[in-house]
């Protein structure tokens, strides 16, 4: 709970620092605050996990693991923001405060034990992003993305709340343990309201994670938002949403898996094909990452479809690998777009000659996203495929393997452009600021470390 209080107070402090024009102190203070929140989480690791505040939240290993991931990825994103936000607006404190408030909501989603906290966490996480997506007031694409995200987000919240209301009407409680007790106590006479509630919850949560056919907002919002905000959305927000989804189904709905498993299985297959085939057809690197994030949502659904003892560690490993690679990819896109003025694949042509280090970093990120061995992405995909195989989802595995091949093709397009194509632009060297080099180094080292020694992450939960 100390982490939530720390981040909430930190967001307010950052706003006051902006009021008093302390622009240069924003990043150091924010990073110190994030470090303080990490300390609180680490101190909770060896404590007995018990629901706090009348059963509202619980900081078990699952919640702590995903919260630590959320804070670390947010810190990396903010390290990239040192020059990025200053080039957009003079009111930099707004960006930091909104990201911190969104992060607070993400941690609530990671640790909720009551439907009320799930709803509050999702709304805190989302409302801040509605503003951040459209914070470029003079950019029509940013405005359109913000409006689309707001409308679709409000629509999905309606499904989520209606599902919660139906489950409350059937079970008489918002508490996950009480709901699970109701399911166990009534194995043959579950209320039809409860089944309808599960269905509406699936729709609402699939909107949040960007799973097809509820993905329509994802490519346009990711494309229209500032690149750094897209990086945050596609990593921290997606990981927290999946953590909340996995907690719900593993805690309360496991006895009814024969009802909801075919639904999620169908959604996962549709998501894989729509995400990968759409990404294959893109010419914009940023839009390709947006569609590929839909495909990765399909892979992460494996952990929910095949719920078991390994689901939590599998989805944490996959979310970690995907988040690190995405931070590298979006950070590299910022640098390349600054030099070339375009976010198409052609902007990466000849990058290996202009900056070998940046080309190597992007190559590691693309290989990890494609699931090539010796990267964290391979470990994440391997764990997802393993738990699906353990539950005998053979058709899903075959279709997922086909989609993995499609993913390799469009990710390697970037590598081919960097190493085997000549740049049409001026062949001047792409400069990498120190903060970008630091973030890239940390992300690459962790990606390779997890790829070679996966136990260092898997055994955490």
TrEMBL record:
Query: Which membrane topology term applies here?
Result: Multi-pass membrane protein
For this protein, the parts annotated as crossing the membrane are 25-43, 55-80, 92-109, 115-135, 147-170, 190-211, 232-253, 259-281, 288-309, 315-336, 357-380, 392-412, 433-453
**Functional summary from the UniProt entry:** NDH-1 shuttles electrons from NADH, via FMN and iron-sulfur (Fe-S) centers, to quinones in the respiratory chain. The immediate electron acceptor for the enzyme in this species is believed to be a menaquinone. Couples the redox reaction to proton translocation (for every two electrons transferred, four hydrogen ions are translocated across the cytoplasmic membrane), and thus conserves the redox energy in a proton gradient.
Domain of life the protein comes from? Bacteria
One biological process term in Gene Ontology: ATP synthesis coupled electron transport
Q: What is its EC number?
A: 7.1.1.-
The UniProt similarity line reads: Belongs to the complex I subunit 2 family.
As for subcellular location, the record says:
Cell membrane; Endomembrane system; Membrane
Subunit? NDH-1 is composed of 14 different subunits. Subunits NuoA, H, J, K, L, M, N constitute the membrane sector of the complex.
* Any one annotated GO CC term: endomembrane system
Q: Which GO terms describe its molecular function?
A: NADH dehydrogenase (quinone) (non-electrogenic) activity; NADH dehydrogenase (ubiquinone) activity; quinone binding
Record's keyword terms, sorted? Cell membrane, Membrane, NAD, Oxidoreductase, Quinone, Translocase, Transmembrane, Transmembrane helix, Transport
Which catalysed reactions does the entry list for this protein? a quinone + NADH + 5 H(+)(in) = a quinol + NAD(+) + 4 H(+)(out)
Q: Which residues form the NADH:quinone oxidoreductase/Mrp antiporter transmembrane domain?
A: 114-406
Task: Look up keyword Protease and say if it applies.
Answer: no
Principal subcellular localization: membrane
User: What name does the UniProt record give this protein?
Assistant: NADH-quinone oxidoreductase subunit N
InterPro entries named among the record's database cross-references: NADH-Q_OxRdtase_suN/2, ND/Mrp_TM
């Amino acid at each position: 709970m100390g982490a939530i209080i720390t981040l909430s107070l930190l967001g307010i402090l950052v706003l006051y620092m902006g009021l008093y024009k302390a622009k240069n102190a924003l990043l150091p203070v924010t990073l110190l605050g994030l470090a303080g929140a990490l300390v609180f989480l680490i101190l909770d690791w060896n404590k007995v996990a018990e629901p706090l505040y009348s059963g509202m939240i619980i900081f078990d290993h699952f919640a702590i693991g995903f919260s630590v991931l959320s804070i670390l990825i947010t810190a990396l994103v903010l390290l990239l923001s040192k020059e990025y936000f200053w080039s957009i607006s003079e009111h930099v404190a707004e960006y930091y405060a909104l990201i911190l408030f969104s992060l607070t909501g993400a941690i609530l989603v990671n640790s909720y034990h009551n439907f009320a906290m799930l709803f509050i966490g999702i709304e805190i996480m989302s409302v801040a992003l509605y503003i951040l997506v459209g914070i470029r007031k003079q950019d029509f694409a940013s405005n359109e993305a913000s409006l689309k995200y707001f409308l679709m987000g409000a629509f999905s919240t309606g499904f989520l709340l209606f599902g919660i209301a139906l489950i409350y009407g059937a079970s008489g409680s918002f508490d996950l343990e009480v709901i699970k007790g109701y399911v166990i106590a009534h194995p043959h006479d579950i209320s039809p309201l409860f089944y309808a509630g599960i269905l509406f919850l699936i729709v609402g949560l699939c909107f949040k994670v960007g799973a097809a056919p509820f993905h329509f907002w994802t490519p346009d919002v990711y494309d229209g938002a500032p690149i750094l905000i897209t990086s945050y959305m596609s990593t921290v927000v997606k990981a927290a949403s999946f953590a909340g989804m996995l907690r719900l189904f593993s805690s309360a709905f496991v006895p009814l898996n024969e009802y909801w498993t075919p639904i999620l299985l169908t959604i996962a297959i549709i998501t894989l094909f729509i995400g990968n085939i759409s990404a294959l057809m893109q010419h914009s690197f940023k839009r390709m990452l947006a569609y590929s994030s839909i495909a990765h949502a399909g892979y992460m659904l494996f952990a929910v479809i095949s719920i078991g003892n390994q689901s939590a560690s599998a989805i944490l490993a996959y979310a970690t690998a995907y988040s690190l690679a995405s931070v590298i990819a979006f950070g590299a896109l910022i640098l390349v777009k600054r030099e070339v003025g375009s976010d198409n694949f052609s902007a990466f042509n000849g990058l290996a000659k202009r900056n070998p280090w940046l080309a190597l970093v992007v190559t590691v990120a693309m290989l990890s996203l494609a699931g090539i061995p010796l990267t964290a992405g391979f470990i994440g995909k391997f764990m997802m495929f393993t738990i699906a195989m353990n539950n005998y989802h053979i058709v899903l595995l075959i279709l997922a393997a086909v989609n993995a091949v499609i993913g390799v093709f469009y990710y390697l397009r970037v590598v081919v452009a960097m190493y085997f194509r000549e740049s049409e632009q001026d062949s001047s060297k792409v400069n990498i600021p120190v903060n970008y080099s630091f973030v890239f180094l940390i992300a690459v080292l962790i990606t390779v470390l997890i790829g070679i020694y996966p136990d260092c992450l898997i055994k955490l939960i």
